[in-house]
């Protein structure tokens, strides 16, 4: 359909124009998120009619997040987020946390626990360890002494490899030999894909598969960086 046939969402425009203390942080969080940058409107998660500025019509059919039928209720968030992030949802469905949510446990982690209410951030490794320790620390409801530290280490690994990928991406762009650059770009994509697999496996909250994929991603990154630092001479030279 054309742009004229599909009107842009007016939800955020209206809420920014009529901002309230209760919504100020949530709007700012959304505005700085990947959702905001991609113009994923409020209706994608909350429902409602994004084509009108009439308050009653815009909010018709919407439910409070405390309502068990709301798409942003804690127990429904995985399905809501999974509409756009199916691979992460599929992995999360294999986790014990998802089972607990399905059983009605409102204390277990859900999407917003790690990614914020608007998907604007990812916890730091230290914050993740503290969150895990809330249930898995000594004397807690499900003690698992090594889980918080393991989660912290794996997330630190992800950050380290992402930083290396960003550095390599910039270096590859500067390679003038088109054939060599194409080979390096292919290896860069392989490393990115392996890191992506590791991140998806993290949604199962079983860290052994994640550790294995991270190990491969790091090996690929090390090889790529070595090639960038020590370019091979062209044939015939």
Summarize this entry quickly.
Helix content is 60%, strand content 0%.
Description of the molecule:
This protein has 237 residues and is mainly α. It has 13 helices and no strands. Helix 10 packs antiparallel against helix 11, helix 11 runs antiparallel to helix 12 (178-202) and helix 12 (178-202) packs antiparallel against helix 13 (207-229).
SSE topology sketch:
Blueprint: H1 11-17, H2 21-31, H3 34-37, H4 43-46, H5 55-58, H6 77-82, H7 86-92, H8 96-102, H9 111-115, H10 125-136, H11 147-173, H12 178-202, H13 207-229
Helix pairs in contact: 10-11, 11-12, 11-13, 12-13
Largest sheet properties = none
The rounded Rg comes to 22 Å
Q: Helices and strands, in N-to-C order?
A: HHHHHHHHHHHHH
Q: What's the helix count?
A: 13
> What is the count of β-strands?
0
Uncertain spans = 1-7
| Bulk shape | globular
Distance between the termini: 55 Å
Query: Helix amount, in percent?
Result: 55-70%
Structural class: mainly alpha
**What is the typical, i.e. mean, pLDDT?**
91
Strand content: under 5%
């Amino acid at each position: 359909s054309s742009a004229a046939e599909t009107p842009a969402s007016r939800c955020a425009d209206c809420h920014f124009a009529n901002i309230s203390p209760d919504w100020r942080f949530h709007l700012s969080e959304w505005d700085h998120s990947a959702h905001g940058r991609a113009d994923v409107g409020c209706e994608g998660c909350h429902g409602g009619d994004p084509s009108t500025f009439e308050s009653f019509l815009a909010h018709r059919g919407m439910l409070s997040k405390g309502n068990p039928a709301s798409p942003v209720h804690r127990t429904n968030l995985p399905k809501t987020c999974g509409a756009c992030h199916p691979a992460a949802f599929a992995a999360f469905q294999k986790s014990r946390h998802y089972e607990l949510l399905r059983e009605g446990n409102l204390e277990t982690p859900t999407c917003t626990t790690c990614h914020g209410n608007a998907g604007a951030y990812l916890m730091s490794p230290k914050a993740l360890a503290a969150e895990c320790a809330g249930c898995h620390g000594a004397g807690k409801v499900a003690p698992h002494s090594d889980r918080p530290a393991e989660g912290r280490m794996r997330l630190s690994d992800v950050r380290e490899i992402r930083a290396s990928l960003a550095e390599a991406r910039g270096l590859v762009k500067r390679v003038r030999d088109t054939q060599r650059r194409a080979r390096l770009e292919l290896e860069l994509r392989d490393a990115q894909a392996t890191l992506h697999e590791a991140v998806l496996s993290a949604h199962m909250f079983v860290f052994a598969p994640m550790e294995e994929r991270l190990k491969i991603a790091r090996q690929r990154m090390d090889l790529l960086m070595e090639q960038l630092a020590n370019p091979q001479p062209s044939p015939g030279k």
